[in-house]
Write a structure and sequence with these properties.
By secondary structure, the protein is α/β, with parallel strands linked by helices. The chain has eleven helices and twelve strands. The strands form two sheets. It has a ten-stranded mixed sheet with strand order 2-1-3-12-11-4-5-10-8-9, sandwiched between helices. It has a two-stranded antiparallel ribbon with strand order 6-7. Helix 5 (162-178) packs across helix 6, helix 9 (296-308) runs antiparallel to helix 10 (312-326) and helix 10 (312-326) crosses helix 11 (342-355). The protein binds adenosine-5'-triphosphate (ATP). Adenosine-5'-triphosphate is lined by residues 14, 75, 77, 259-260, 281-287, 293-294, 297, 333, 335. Adenosine-5'-triphosphate binds at residues 14, 75, 77, 259-260, 281-287, 293-294, 297, 333, 335.
């Protein structure tokens, strides 16, 4: 039996509800004659830890994560702590510290989900957005001087390196080449940002030369929002900068039916460090503690994690159970217009995984 060490970081808000639910699903997979097992280690980092210790995670926190095979993360965000502290002190610290430079966000309309685009068929929307995850607009470069005076000045520098741009473009082209349609759209804004974004375009064209089998095009980020709504079937794999992809992937999640469904992986493709998987939603303090958070985004993230660990059959098993649940309106949580609780959805998904133990899975 293969055993994987998994770090669990629930973080804040509903992260504390959906990560334990994700653990239950992984335990169900482990028990389902899959030949794999897990050793979980929990880390209580986040807003409460900050209040007690003055930091979102300990100084040697990254060391504790390095020995894990993967990380399942909930969310970081607390109404009592400024957002830039919660974000930079935990999630971005882990992404940058473990060189998780590719943020991968699949979007599909799962079975039974009523998505808002009425002219879009389910098969028209099947995207993977690849987000540069360590530099660009969120490089952290910049400064603020003369605070409180009329001459106060502040700047955030969008820093792009050729190495950083090339590795994310290469990852995106490779991913596009592995998907049936072999299509990549490179999102840009080189008409207005005439330095780094022009380099971004040039590097894309250079890398494209190594992937003749991939059909690719370029789209300005503003035009991209309209294309996602009006011509979803024209898109497959998408690569964009840190900020552009951040915005586009929230739009993608909404177009697929709910923020509560969408998953993401922060990937270190070379596997030199563990990768981290998380639902894309935030801490959602408005529904925290009520037991109504949709755990599907976390389950899909757990499935991505299994794929990344080299367990595609287990990953498929989780997604089959997830779509079994989404197909049943009685198992829809409030964000999907239903009344199911987190626990009910989790139990149904775990039961489905157990029921399918040892048998090949039906395709969705
Ligand atoms: P943060 O500041 O941490 O990003 P937020 O509350 O501003 O948190 P989200 O957590 O992304 O932003 O939530 C936006 C809205 O979507 C909220 O009204 C929230 O209740 C809802 N929502 C987000 N995730 C879920 C989920 N998993 N299940 C149900 N509703 C959700």
């Amino acid at each position: 039996m293969k055993r994987y060490r998994i770090a669990l970081i629930p973080g804040d808000g509903i992260g504390k509800e959906v990560v334990p639910a994700g653990r239950q699903v992984l335990e169900a997979v482990a028990g389902a004659e899959s030949g794999i097992g897990f050793e979980f280690e929990g880390f209580d980092w986040g807003g409460d830890y900050y209040r007690a210790h003055g930091a979102m995670m300990p100084d040697d926190g990254l060391e504790a994560l390095r020995g894990q095979n993967a990380i399942l993360f909930g969310s970081a965000g607390d109404p009592g702590i400024p957002d830039h502290i919660t974000l930079w002190g935990l999630r971005l610290k882990i992404c940058q510290g473990l060189d998780q430079y590719a943020n991968v966000r699949p979007t599909r309309i799962l079975r039974g989900i009523d998505a808002p685009l009425k002219r879009c068929r389910t098969e028209d929307l099947d995207w993977v957005i690849v987000r540069e995850n360590t530099e660009g607009e969120y490089s952290g470069a910049g400064g603020r001087v003369h605070q409180g005076f009329p001459i106060e000045a502040a700047m955030d520098v969008s820093l792009m390196t050729r190495a950083g741009v090339e590795r994310i473009q290469r990852y995106a082209f490779r991913l596009a080449a592995s998907r049936p349609r072999k299509r990549l759209t490179v999102v840009t804004k080189s008409n207005a940002q005439r330095h780094a974004m022009v380099m971004w375009d040039e590097v894309a064209a250079e890398v494209a030369g190594d992937f003749p089998e991939v059909g690719w095009d370029k789209e300005l980020v503003d035009a991209m929002t309209a294309r996602m709504v009006n011509r979803p079937a024209s898109l497959d794999t998408i690569v964009a900068t840190n900020l552009h992809a951040d915005v586009l992937s929230d739009l993608a999640a909404a177009l697929a039916g709910s923020l509560g469904i969408a998953p993401t992986g922060n990937i270190n493709p070379e596997q030199a460090f563990p990768s981290m998987f998380e639902p894309i939603h935030g801490s959602a303090f408005d529904i925290m503690g009520q037991g109504v958070a949709n755990p599907i985004g976390t389950f899909w993230s757990a499935s991505m994690m299994l794929d990344h660990l080299g367990e595609p059959e287990a990953a498929r098993r989780v997604m089959e159970a997830v779509e079994y649940a989404t197909a049943d309106p009685k198992l829809h949580t409030r964000d999907l217009g239903g009344a199911a609780t987190t626990a009910e959805v989790t139990e149904a998904v775990c039961a489905r995984i157990a029921a399918g133990a040892g048998r090949p899975l039906a395709t969705a």
